[in-house]
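Quick one, tokens below:
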């Protein structure tokens, strides 16, 4: 029995060395409280032979032995811990998490990718984080089409789809789907791409010298609704090439002729270097995707003046250039450090304006190239 008691005390001490470190005061939560209490109960069992010897006076010189105080310490500590309530402090790292490697508690910035620019320098690139309406719907427990959105999305028609089904799924009217996609009848083809607005209404491509007052009049809409939805603070804040969502607007049978006509014979150059690779054909809005490696050069397709640069959730980092006749070209998904021009700057045909990236709603490195106000010459 004496040998067994010594063994238990030795085992308790060994357990103490390895486990005490993992049990911080106040860190025992619901799941770990049981583990910690069992641990201290084990200490009580280990100290029992010493306590029994003291009670029966079979341990000679017990008061002079350090084991007496060592055992008493475990007894007191064990009883105090056994009935201790969980701490009300903020949750700390749990016992089980300390035993094993666990995931970090906070989001950590990933190491940026390095982009080779013009084969002469490096730039850091960190992709933007995007949450889609579908993902947001899952998180909130609501269908994605019921989640408020402000962006225009593209829908690929599946076999058996009807206009009414699609309109109902996205909570918009059939007319809204018809107007934006120029659909006359009701037939849809599987694989057909449809532009879906976030609200009932119409879509207007701003032409040179169009005004908000005129646009509201043409579509029988409220100018304030147009400004609020498109985040416009003043009537002078629109530019040729802007795509405006007209909430509750009604598409007119025809629009007044634009005050300026697109230049005839416009010959756009490829916005990327050779070899040219088209990764997606014509899609919203009058766009072609050119595949290229991240960090490679993006060139102005035609001479003009830089109209806007910036970022949006879908197009990522973008550049817009205004050309003669009110035609606008758009270069999207540029690298985080890929905008190399500024608004108001004049650029020449083939001039370096940016760097290829994958910002915004992009699945890989490419340039989203749009032509607004004229046909896209690269459409197949």
């Amino acid at each position: 029995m004496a040998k067994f008691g010594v063994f238990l005390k030795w085992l308790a001490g060994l357990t103490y060395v390895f486990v005490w470190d993992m049990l911080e005061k106040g860190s025992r939560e619901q799941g770990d409280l049981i583990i910690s209490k069992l641990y201290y109960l084990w200490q009580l069992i280990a100290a029992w032979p010493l306590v029994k010897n003291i009670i029966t006076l079979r341990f000679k010189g017990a008061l002079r032995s350090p084991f007496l105080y060592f055992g008493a310490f475990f007894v007191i500590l064990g009883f105090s811990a056994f009935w201790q309530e969980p701490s009300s402090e903020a949750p700390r790292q749990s016992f089980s998490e300390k035993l094993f490697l666990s995931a970090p508690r906070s989001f950590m910035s990933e190491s940026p990718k390095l982009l080779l620019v013009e084969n002469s320098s490096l730039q850091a690139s960190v992709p933007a984080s995007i949450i889609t309406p579908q993902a947001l719907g899952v998180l909130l427990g609501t269908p994605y089409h019921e989640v408020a959105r402000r962006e225009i999305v593209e829908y690929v028609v599946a076999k058996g789809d009807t206009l009414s089904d699609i309109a109902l799924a996205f909570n918009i009217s059939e007319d809204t789907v018809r107007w934006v996609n120029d659909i006359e009848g009701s037939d849809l083809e599987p694989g057909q791409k449809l532009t879906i607005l976030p609200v009932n209404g119409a879509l207007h491509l701003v032409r040179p010298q169009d005004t908000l007052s005129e646009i509201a009049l043409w579509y029988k809409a409220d100018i304030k609704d147009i400004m609020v939805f498109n985040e416009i603070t003043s009537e002078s804040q629109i530019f040729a090439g802007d795509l405006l969502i007209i909430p509750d607007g009604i598409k007119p049978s025809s629009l007044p002729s634009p005050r300026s006509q697109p230049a005839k014979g416009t010959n756009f150059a490829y916005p990327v270097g050779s070899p040219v690779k088209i990764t997606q054909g014509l899609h919203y809005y009058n766009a072609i995707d050119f595949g290229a490696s991240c960090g490679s050069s993006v060139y102005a397709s035609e001479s003009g003046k830089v109209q806007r640069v910036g970022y949006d959730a879908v197009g990522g980092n973008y550049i817009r250039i205004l050309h003669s006749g009110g035609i606008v070209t758009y270069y999207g998904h540029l690298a985080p450090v890929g905008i190399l021009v500024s608004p108001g700057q004049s650029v020449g045909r083939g001039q370096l304006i940016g760097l290829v990236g994958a910002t915004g709603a992009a699945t890989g490195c490419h340039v989203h190239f749009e032509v607004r106000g004229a046909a896209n010459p690269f459409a197949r």
